[in-house]
Amino acid sequence: MNFREPVILGRTGLRAGRLGIASGYGAPAAGIEEAFERGCNYFTWGTVIKGYKPEMRQALKNIVDKGQRDRLVLAMFTYAHNNFFTERMLRRGLKSAGLEHADVLILGYFSRRPSRRLIDGALKMKEKGLTRFIGLSSHSRKLLGELGRDGEFDVLHLRYNAAHRGAEKDIFPFLGGEKRPGTVAFIATRWGQLLNPKKMPPGEKPPTAPDCYRFVLSHPAVDVCMSGAKTVEQMRENLAVLDGGPMSGDELVRMRRIGDHVYGKPRR
To answer: Taking the model in full, what pTM does it have?
Structure first.
């Protein structure tokens, strides 16, 4: 078993590659397109605060020009918390890349449930054909657990890595049934701390980025694990995870031991 095969992204029915590609790290278009050809078709792009990364824009345009839009799963982010600006920026971003719609509109980041006004605004953008599904991104496990039970959102972006494993009891148990949302994990390396030799337990060799991605993808509740790369070389290193499969018991124990050390606080 390996991670080259796509999964169904929850109730959306979309076929998504297991390794997602985030635009915020500045990987060149060539690297993004190489990942796409390897089956990594879940892209995140766009924020009102930081703008639309030109490298991802170029990659999207090239993918569309090659007639491969149907293979792409594009999740576009907004942090505006304002329906007018969200729709305005969404339309601008889509137009700049030659796209008619996003596959998922992600509202982020929220520590509490979005207002009814914001949710209804996102649903109206769905009715207008600007997005096929709506999702939410948050660090709040309590909120995501509630949303998993309620089934209001089609996709949930959540924090999960070897150091931050609270989702295993606060979120994952509530993601079941026919209305199960697609699950996308982010910060797999804990902002690089899980790769830092200085953060390791005595005598422990640090894991690689693919090790961190494999740990996340080894949990059956996770559909997609987001990755970040600044260069083509880093992208290729990350893509190595596709040839691996779920971690063995010993590998998981090691990653959890390292995660506990990096976390640095007593577990509840």
So the answer is: 0.95
CA angle 137, 178, 90 (to 5 degrees): 35
Q: Which domain holds residue 121?
A: 7-263
Low-confidence ranges of the chain (pLDDT < 70): 47-51, 265-268
N-to-C CA span, the chain = 34
Domain harbouring 14, CATH code: 3.20.20.100
Three-class SS of the chain = CCCCCCEECHHHCCEECCEEEECCCCCCHHHHHHHHHCCCCEEEECCCCCCCCHHHHHHHHHHHHCCCHHHCEEEEEECCCCHHHHHHHHHHHHHHCCCCCEEEEEECCCCCCCCHHHHHHHHHHHHCCCEEEEEEEECCHHHHHHHHHHCCCCEEEEECCCCCCCHHHHCHHHCCCCCCCEEEEECCCCCCHHHCHHHCCCCCCCCCHHHHHHHHHCCCCCCEEEECCCCHHHHHHHHHHHHCCCCCHHHHHHHHHHHHHHHCCCCC
Per-residue model confidence (pLDDT) at position 267: 56
Count: domains in the chain: 1
Residue 268 belongs to some domain of the structure:
no
pLDDT of residue 265: 65
Is there a domain that residue 202 lies in? yes
User: Cα separation of 198 and 121, whole Å?
Assistant: 46
| pLDDT of the residue at 49 | 46
Determine how many CB atoms are found less than 10 A away from the CB of residue 65: 10
Output the pLDDT for position 243: 92
The reported pLDDT for the residue numbered 252 is: 98
- Quote the pLDDT of residue 52: 75
Whether residue 1 is contained in a domain is answered as no
